[in-house]
Amino acid sequence: MYENIKIGLLGGDLRQLALARRLSSIGFETAVWGLGVCTAEIGSAVRCAGWRDAVRGSTAVVLPLPASQDGVQLNCPLAPETELRLTHIMNEVPDGALLLGGKFDSSIKQLAHKKHIPIIDYYECEELQIKNALPTAEGALAIAMNELPITIFGCMAAITGYGRVGKALAKVLCALGAKVTVIARSIEELAWAEINGCTPMRLETKNNVSTLGNLEGYDVIFNTVPYKIFDRAVLERLSKDILIIDLATSPGGIDSFAAKEFGHKVIWALSLPGKVAPFTAGNIIGDCILEILSREGVISQL
Amino acid sequence: MYENIKIGLLGGDLRQLALARRLSSIGFETAVWGLGVCTAEIGSAVRCAGWRDAVRGSTAVVLPLPASQDGVQLNCPLAPETELRLTHIMNEVPDGALLLGGKFDSSIKQLAHKKHIPIIDYYECEELQIKNALPTAEGALAIAMNELPITIFGCMAAITGYGRVGKALAKVLCALGAKVTVIARSIEELAWAEINGCTPMRLETKNNVSTLGNLEGYDVIFNTVPYKIFDRAVLERLSKDILIIDLATSPGGIDSFAAKEFGHKVIWALSLPGKVAPFTAGNIIGDCILEILSREGVISQL
Amino acid sequence: MYENIKIGLLGGDLRQLALARRLSSIGFETAVWGLGVCTAEIGSAVRCAGWRDAVRGSTAVVLPLPASQDGVQLNCPLAPETELRLTHIMNEVPDGALLLGGKFDSSIKQLAHKKHIPIIDYYECEELQIKNALPTAEGALAIAMNELPITIFGCMAAITGYGRVGKALAKVLCALGAKVTVIARSIEELAWAEINGCTPMRLETKNNVSTLGNLEGYDVIFNTVPYKIFDRAVLERLSKDILIIDLATSPGGIDSFAAKEFGHKVIWALSLPGKVAPFTAGNIIGDCILEILSREGVISQL
Amino acid sequence: MYENIKIGLLGGDLRQLALARRLSSIGFETAVWGLGVCTAEIGSAVRCAGWRDAVRGSTAVVLPLPASQDGVQLNCPLAPETELRLTHIMNEVPDGALLLGGKFDSSIKQLAHKKHIPIIDYYECEELQIKNALPTAEGALAIAMNELPITIFGCMAAITGYGRVGKALAKVLCALGAKVTVIARSIEELAWAEINGCTPMRLETKNNVSTLGNLEGYDVIFNTVPYKIFDRAVLERLSKDILIIDLATSPGGIDSFAAKEFGHKVIWALSLPGKVAPFTAGNIIGDCILEILSREGVISQL
Fold first, then answer.
1. Cys-Cys with D28: which of A51, B216, C103, D2 at CB 3.0–4.6 Å?
2. pTM (two decimals)
């Protein structure tokens, strides 16, 4: 039904591949460039020899997540020797076509505005972040399963923070029979944690210092809070047997120097969806892109 | 540890009784009046002969939920012949003592302010509303179990709205193996519904008219949206075999005249926590009162 | 695909009605008699004026569950004034046709054998009993929800016995967040209970006397063991606040005289599937009948 | 309470270490030999310099699982250069002491009988096998999570066999939101699978040839059936994109030559509990040993 609408995909990893498969299965004319030697199935999408072939005639040009690693070159991990500047791509985007991508630098956004290219960062969509919480939670679960000498069933797990990732993680851990404590500041969030089957623990903050309750007896702590609640003082009191998995965006919530000094096992786990479930993550990006195309009037309401 | 703090409870139903048990078990001096002939166990709380005995010397006077049915008299269902005006109670509240209760009329609040009585409506606490979502969900589940000729396992259920009650209800239905569709406006809420295992269905709104998708094949619909999305047009298309349970606060989400005309089975289910699980509901009020006492400095932080 | 195969249904309640709907939807020529004034939808099944019309030409004649209440007359609760003896039905069953029904008396079976009528009691099918465990569990859950002044979430529940019903019941209670203890004799069953998330408690038996552990603090006990483990001695020690629901087939597991004497609240809950979820129960019978028809060569393998 | 009972543990891996910790925490005098350089916490258990010190005075001598890799030498992976024959151990077992271990060769059992040493293979305990199904299921889940490019949530999983491991695995997969099909022979097992939320699929067998249904669209297959149901013919029809995880004891259920020829990704996953959750597995052995000690009258009933 969307045969007359061409979407050009440039660069990216297995998520981009899953996205190509998804968009072509729905019926878009889908043109792909930059997946390099990856020979996996891309449905009825077409691999282009040159990137301009993929862009030409497109209603939307979709760059990967992130669009660029260095703010200059297209992120193209499956064709590593490639060099293609985002500015060059912009020069070829058809008039009126949308430029989509993840985590655009503000300088790129400004340039696009200057060139009157409608640019949309799909990573800023709240529903994408929500859906990404699930592969993140599964990725964190897999790390815990791989690292712990015990089963998740019956283990004592603490989660700091009860936002998107905290909620999804608590759900999967409870589903497998872990005893889950949620540590958070807001009594509303703790009320949710409680009716979702977790033990609530208040995170007190006085004079900018957070006071974690007693974590003795826990097997694993998952941190989702993006500031240092696991500071020197907290880490000093913490048993060395507890596995710590930090899911918070950089710089994370754990004082890494102190953790090293006290001999804690800490695993920093970032950008899990693309690593542990690239096809799922690509489909989530696909959902978001369809929503954007609908919102922008390219396709009729879903 | 709280022996020196007296709390006086007046009126109310089994929730008030559970509250008395809870507060006395924690160590408060707990004085109760108005539970009438109900002889159930109230722990170490003391039944007072006169209401003034319960109020005298109290640090906090706790009225039930709702504090009054008519805005004038204390709500006292277990001692039905009782007549005690809230204004009379206010005259006896000790200096500096808190006056707590649920769903105070604004006129009562204004009067309290005028009399310099610190008055707090615990029903306005967000965490109480969140925790109440669970007994509400269980109550709605019980109604569905009692009414439907099929098991919840495998049944097709639709929930309109994905706020507190919608979320709690979806969770219990999924837990029992129902196939749950969540119908909501916001794509963020639908993303949550999806990762929580439900099928998302968008509720479109144009020119103030909501358009429900096709609900053929569903066995039961739970409405939690407090305005008429089940209007004449929707109800006319709906199969008569579908059980409709309306959980939205008055006037609810279903056009009752049209429902009657078309022969739909609609059950209006309001104030479920106090009806289906009064002891749990009383304990939830207790949690909230402890939080208030802590916030107000009556007791140290929990 | 089964248009040439006629199935005649006689008597029964809403289960028989659901069965008629199911069989006709699959394509059998389905003839019904004895549902009386019940005007509910029976799909493309045909209501017969006389019972002989339903039986004539049938490949299988299906009697309800139970086939008879008194061992003589057909069980016909929806047409209560009806009187039709099973022996009369047998006289009209076509040559070679199967006679199916639930809980046949041994005298009826013997008579059928004598008359060379192939008779099969579908209630003896293990898979029907297994599937029936689920509506039984939901029915027991609904009773507990209706009776207890607390939510199932967080309640302390004990289940005696971990057979079909015990397993299904433990599952639904755990799913709703109850804390479930399974009391059983076999350490194998207790190992299953443990990995299914329940607390195991050994039921010791010495000299034919079972010794129940301490049940203080429990809110509800579900008994599934069909002999008196709740004898005088056990009941005397048990708190009167505990709700007892007896699911075991007659005479059940609770000494009713002692329970009355000590003031226990006991609910005897029998034959739940047909009461709480007749359509589901009818479909389960349908599954079983299809299995029997396949096994007997009437239809090809499912 | 068991200070006067000495238990000697020889050889083994981290499971034996967890067992030492468990037994010493209960109060047994626990003597350990053969954990080599492993410096992990063993509670109040005592590391012995010589194996005879651990055995001397013991009421029970506990060998690891398996007791021996080659039927001759003690299995001692944490002290790999060790050489200690089971026959030498037997010579030193105190009179009347129990000799416990896992997977004893029949020749060892015969020798023990000849020497009047009460020998018990704890791996033969049904309850240990049941409890082990859970770490096996979690281990299989972790493999699937590590290998699949999609989340378990929403994935299409098939499980062949519905015994101990099949049941535990179906449970964890369903808990995480996978769509699970159970393929089995017995309609009773399929009825259980159905009420546990799985889709049942009949495994037909004619003339010793099993016929698997259509597995198109599945993402992962877990085999638990210990004979070749995935033969050449089945594998030829199967999509190469499906991940196959074989959990069945050797020789497993998959024709490995054909799988290689057709390019299937097969993972053979054996003895998972000791690998993925050695501390849990050690505690499970501990449960079993306590049960044996109770049954044998060494300790009073648990």
1. D2
2. 0.95
